[in-house]
Write a structure and sequence with these properties.
Elements (H helix, E strand, L loop, with lengths): L1 H27 L6 H20 L9 H15 L2
């Protein structure tokens, strides 16, 4: 059971890094142009898409990545 929790922890950290990279790349290139960026969008979109439906945008600011990172870090921290 400890192995499963460790895998979930690692997955949470990897997804956190992927979301941060995606957020930074969105400032440079909002449209995915390379295959690496497309893969990054495919990995992070299942997490961010449901949050975007719940969390309203504030002008041009999208806070769904911040909320996703907080949720992922809470999951990783509170696993036994």
């Amino acid at each position: 059971m400890d192995i499963l929790f460790e895998v979930i922890r690692i997955l949470c950290h990897v997804l956190t890094v992927a979301i941060v990279i995606r957020a930074l790349l969105s400032w440079v290139s909002p449209v995915p142009t390379s295959m690496l960026i497309v893969v990054l969008f495919r990995i992070t979109e299942p997490i961010l898409s449901p949050l975007r439906r719940i969390i309203p945008r504030f002008g041009m600011w999208d806070f769904s990545p911040v909320v996703a990172i907080i949720i992922l870090q809470l999951i990783a921290r509170f696993l036994p």
